[in-house]
Amino acid sequence: MKDLLCGTTIPKIFKVGTVFVEPGVIASNMPKCNEITIQYPSRLDAACTDPGKIYEYSRDNIYAAGQINFCVDICKIISVKIRADENINISEAQDCKSIILHAVKLMQKILKIDNGFDINIRNDLDLRHCGLGSSASTIQVIGAAINELFGNPIKPMDLIRYLAGNHGEEIDGDDDHLVYVQSVGGSGVCGHFEGGLIVMTGRAVPIVRVGLPNKLKIVFGIPNKYTHSDANTLIIEEIKETNNFKKASKDFSREIAYRLLNDAIPELLDGNYKPMKNFIFDYCWDMGSIKNCAYAFPDITILAEKMRPLKNDEDIVFIALSTAGPGFFIATYNASKAERIFADLDMKTYIANVYNDKYKIIERK
């Protein structure tokens, strides 16, 4: 299969429902219930384990860039009901209907069904292209819900990889097409596996999963001046940074691997968060991540420098730019202090709890 991003300067536009990575064989496709409602968390992506890999050829569109993800209770609540006909009815209040329809068609393909569905999604916080992985979590939550309706015939990792390999994001004003955007699989992993902090490597493999204290708060800050572009515009700007992300891998991959394996992860498992905090900070601030991600909002480099003293602030347990931003987040036991920090930088804030569980079934009929 031809890679959809590597070596190109033009984004790939495709029709909703297009399948690039063919599904495997499943054991059953008979529904086990008629309606289900589930709660699905969001992920904050603090760092990649090999950032250049997101621009290298992948045979199945699973990019082995790795991620360090924090799972938070900024949730989507989705209700899916099987219809007696083949219509796909998406509630009128939904944005990004193209993404929802795409996810349904992907599940119809893998389950080999033509059932219609009624779908409603409620978001705790509806923020697009800010670092919450909202598009990916929409696709993954629909996949999880429909898989539950049919008795979970698709294993979690198979489902995560299938949906990530066929990922796409919305184009403003076009409900029939999506733009291809690489997916590492973090939103799928955070929904299907327990752990408030999950380290992923390779093909979306969660190698470390750690529960974080329930009293720890996640304060998410977004610049007030930020106005999001659509995914088509953002991917064009991101492609221009390809060589810089690859250079970061070349320059720092050995240091990243050594520090994670020999310092940050062992100490994390022993309950000492400081080495992981230091690693994430150095990755974002000093290994090129924030600079390379400034295509989405150039002022993040200025904001980041003003936050540099927070590396040594004992009230700040973790701090990072999430994905390409422009959202930053602080994990802390002193949420009011984090709010003041972001407010002084002209950023609006949202406070969330750590989410240590996988997705939850709220109701099944």
Folded structure, characterized:
By secondary structure, the protein is α+β, with helices and mostly antiparallel strands. It has 2 domains: 13-204 and 357-364, Ribosomal Protein S5, domain 2, CATH 3.30.230.10; 217-353, Alpha-Beta Plaits (2-Layer Sandwich), CATH 3.30.70. The chain has helices at residues 97-111, 134-149, 156-165, 186-192, 231-239, 242-269, 274-286, 289-292, 300-307, 335-344, and strands spanning 13-15, 35-47, 67-82, 88-90, 117-123, 169-171, 174-179, 197-201, 205-210, 217-223, 316-321, 328-332, 347-353, 360-364. Helix 2 (134-149) packs across helix 3 (156-165) and helix 2 crosses helix 4 (186-192). The N and C termini lie far apart (40 Å). The relative contact order is 0.18.
The proportion of residues in beta strands is 25-35%
Mean pLDDT: 91
Number of strands: 14
Helix/strand class: alpha+beta
How are the secondary structure elements laid out?
Layout: E1 13-15, E2 35-47, E3 67-82, E4 88-90, H1 97-111, E5 117-123, H2 134-149, H3 156-165, E6 169-171, E7 174-179, H4 186-192, E8 197-201, E9 205-210, E10 217-223, H5 231-239, H6 242-269, H7 274-286, H8 289-292, H9 300-307, E11 316-321, E12 328-332, H10 335-344, E13 347-353, E14 360-364
Parallel strand pairs: 4-5
Antiparallel strand pairs: 1-7, 2-3, 2-14, 3-5, 3-8, 6-7, 8-9, 10-12, 10-13, 11-12
